[in-house]
Design goal:
glycosidase, cytoplasm, alpha/beta, 26 strands, Immunoglobulin-like, 28% strand, mannosyl-glycoprotein endo-beta-N-acetylglucosaminidase activity, eight-stranded parallel β-sheet, five-stranded mixed β-sheet, 4 domains
């Protein structure tokens, strides 16, 4: 494949790659055309008509969905044939990430000590294969993004495709990478690196210690003459034969870095320093550390992590942590979060440089990790790098016991200064126009005893670095039980309190499948897709309601929430709907990053009419 592209002129090669990815227009399938054109349809242009049949329709959508529930799932490519036959135009939209990677501070190029996590856990694609989440009460979840630089999702597939949202909803704060373990065609490594740099912003290609220069699978556990030469063929095919000293860096010139296997077998973790230091590539060599400490003479194990983290000092190398799922696989899963925080990453946090996502206004958080029921501790609410507007509105939604006071403290950084300045925002009166306007735009009300506290911060040119919530009790100090629930925090430009005029467009329904329910009500499974061109949405609320049927005298039902969607595609699964014949309406409500909700007139709408074999549709 690489040779064919190399022998063509640049324009022909570009067209060849484009056809390989997208396929010729005239060969596109009928199903694909339907999925693309549905986004161009005007709202309420038609009603989808379905006949309720069990079995046949289910098998037709099994390729991209779970065989039992039709939930969207993700998996890897298992053969060279699958890889070569893949086309971008045929990609399942659920598998496409829609959230761009955020910048980070400091950037990777200026990080003195880097940490790579290789998530090798029980073969991969466990609960996290379900792209819309799982109802598991005790899932594995990785959320210590502030401690690491590179996350590699490893499975035993030929090509691993990580889920778009990653193991948690917040992977937009870090770098993704592809780790190469190709057992042949070293020329491909150089070509892959070039293409990743061209097509994927922030993409990295790392060579995993597996193959020596003869092509044999033999782990070296360090960068040495054997595995450095494994990619020498790639380098020599693309340029004149290197001198002996140049051959030593072939693997690093062919890609972005190298990380070793974790067994020493007499080797020293820093044995490669003499070679990499000459070329100035120490930051691109990662020493493997196995959390399980499998085998003899292994770098790693939980005892290793209980010692001061000293790889950066002893070897001038970076760390590649293999299988941190040890905490989940071997320990009490009901104590997973405690063990993950205190017994593992808590041992490392003081030795790892902090990383902060560089966000922009508006910023909203509900403090939800995506799993679990409660969170305790005295940690900061958030730590990041957030440029503030000249007049920034900070709003906290909370519910506290009687006599409990809640107030905010912030640390801001002045322009071109390293020193932080502490700010204690003064909460605006409840009837202040900004507080009232914010509560109205977010559709907050006081019937559930939630308090909306807003403060106006004047910080032109400053950046928010830390935000803390202080909770105190009125009166004399004494031991007493209390509760305080933090619902949401929002920071936005005080001059942006308005709604966009755009509406959700082109809502379409496809890949419909029916499952039998426990009663006469069938279970609807269908994929929704839409377009929303306004300011980025935080999420979408998917609703449904009955319009008519099965009794034509029945009035329309209320709007009912189905779930949240975090992209512009969503799979409705196992939704109990009225027995046929009936007419339903599916609705999509955008919630903006500011927390603002749009009126129902701007929601997306699509209708689904269905009947059984012996009834007439509505």
């Amino acid at each position: 494949m690489s040779r064919q592209v190399e022998d063509q002129d640049p324009e022909t090669a570009r067209k060849t790659r484009q056809e390989d990815e997208n396929g010729p227009e005239e060969k596109r399938s009928k199903t694909e055309t339907t999925r693309e054109s549905c986004l161009d349809q005007p709202m309420d242009s038609s009603v989808v008509h379905e006949v309720v049949k069990f079995g046949d329709s289910h098998s037709q959508v099994a390729k991209y969905y779970d065989a039992d529930t039709t939930e969207p799932i993700i998996g890897g490519l298992h053969s060279l044939e699958e890889l070569l036959s893949w086309r971008r135009s045929e990609a399942q939209p659920f598998n496409v990430s829609t959230v761009p990677l955020s910048p980070r501070e400091p950037p990777l190029s200026r990080t003195p000590f880097r940490t790579l996590v290789s998530h090798d856990m029980m073969g991969g694609y466990l609960d996290d294969r379900f792209l819309q989440g799982t109802d598991s009460e005790l899932p594995y979840c990785f959320y210590h993004w502030n401690h690491i630089d590179i996350f590699n999702y490893f499975t035993h597939s030929m090509v691993t495709i990580p889920r778009p949202a990653g193991p948690t909803p917040r992977t937009d704060t870090e770098f993704w990478s592809w780790a190469s373990a190709v057992k042949n065609m070293p020329l491909f490594l150089h070509y892959l690196t070039e293409q990743i740099h061209e097509r994927v912003s922030g993409g990295l290609v790392l060579w995993y210690d597996s193959v020596v220069h003869t092509g044999k699978l033999t782990w070296q556990n360090q960068l040495n003459q054997n595995n450095r030469s494994a990619a020498a063929a790639a380098h020599s095919d693309l340029s004149p034969s290197p001198a002996p000293k140049q051959t030593a860096i072939a693997v690093l010139t062919a890609c972005d870095g190298f990380f070793t296997n974790y067994k020493l077998d007499g080797a020293e973790p820093g044995g490669h320093e003499g070679f990499s230091a000459v070329q100035g590539r120490q930051a691109d060599v990662y020493v493997g550390v196995d959390v399980f400490a499998r085998g003899e003479m292994v770098v790693g194990g939980i005892l290793f992590f209980s010692q001061p983290w000293s790889l950066s000092e002893s070897t001038s190398s970076q760390a590649a942590i293999f299988a941190p799922g040890w905490v989940y696989e071997t320990q009490d899963r009901t104590e997973f979060r405690h063990n993950q925080d205190s017994q593992f990453w808590g041992l490392l946090s003081d030795h790892l440089p902090p990383h902060r996502p560089v966000s922009s206004l508006p910023f909203t958080s509900t403090f939800c990790q995506g799993f679990g029921r409660a969170s305790t501790g005295e940690e900061r609410v958030l730590s990041l790098h957030l440029p503030l507007a000249s007049s920034t509105l900070v709003c906290l939604v909370y519910k506290a016991s009687a006599g409990v006071s809640v107030f905010l403290e912030m640390s801001v950084q002045e322009p071109n200064e390293d020193k932080l300045r502490h700010v204690s925002p003064v909460v605006l009166d409840e009837g202040h126009v900004l507080s009232s306007q914010f509560a109205q735009l977010c559709a907050f009300d006081s019937e559930h005893d939630w308090t909306v506290a807003c403060a106006l911060v004047q910080a032109d040119g400053c950046s928010l670095r830390d935000l803390t919530v202080n909770i105190s009790r009125d009166g004399e100090p004494q031991d007493t039980a209390f509760s305080c629930r933090l619902g949401q925090i929002t920071l936005l430009d005080a001059y942006s309190l308005h709604l966009p005029s755009e509406r959700v467009e082109g809502l379409c329904i496809y890949d419909v499948a029916w499952l039998p329910g426990s009663s006469e009500e069938p279970l609807l499974n269908a994929t929704l897709r839409w377009s929303f061109r306004a300011a980025p949405a935080c999420h979408y609320r998917v609703h449904w309601r009955r319009l008519r049927g099965p009794d034509p005298r029945t009035t329309a039902g209320p709007v009912r929430l189905v779930s949240r969607a975090y992209s512009q595609v969503f799979r409705v699964t196992e939704l109990a709907v009225p027995r046929p014949p009936a007419l339903l309406e599916l609705l999509v409500e955008p919630v903006l990053k500011s927390g603002f909700v749009l009126p129902e007139s701007q929601w997306g709408r699509a209708r689904l009419s269905y009947n059984s074999d012996h009834t007439q549709g509505l």
